[in-house]
Amino acid sequence: MASVANQIPIAEGLFTWPSNDPRLLGSRCSNCGVVTFPAQSGCPACCGEETETIELERQGTLWTWTVQGFLPNRPPYDGPETSETFEPFGVGYVELPNQVRVQTRIKTENIAKLEIGMEMDLVVEKYVERDGKDIIAYFFRPSTEA
Amino acid sequence: MDVAIIGIGIHPFGRTDGVSGLEQGVFAARQALQDGRLEWNDMQFAYGGSAAAGKADTMVSKLGLTGLQFINVSNGCATGGSALQSAYMAIQSGMFDIGMAVGFDKHPRGAFTVDPEGSGLGKWYGDIGLALTPQFFGMKIRRYMHEFGITEDTLVRVAMKNYQNGSKNPNAWRRTPFSYADIAESPMVCEPLRKYMFCSPAEGGCAMVLCRADKAREYTSKPVFLKAVSVKTRQFGSFEVFAQCQALDRADPPTVQASRAAFEMAGVGPEDIDVAQLQDTESGAEIMHMAENGFCADGDQEQWLREGYTEIGGKLPVNTDGGCLANGEPIGASGLRQVYEICVQLRGEGGERQVPNQPKTGYTHVYGAPGLSGVTILST
Question: Among the CATH numbers 3.10.290.10, 3.30.1360.120, 3.20.20.70, 3.40.47.10, which is that of B3-109+199-379?
Answer without folding.
Answer: 3.40.47.10
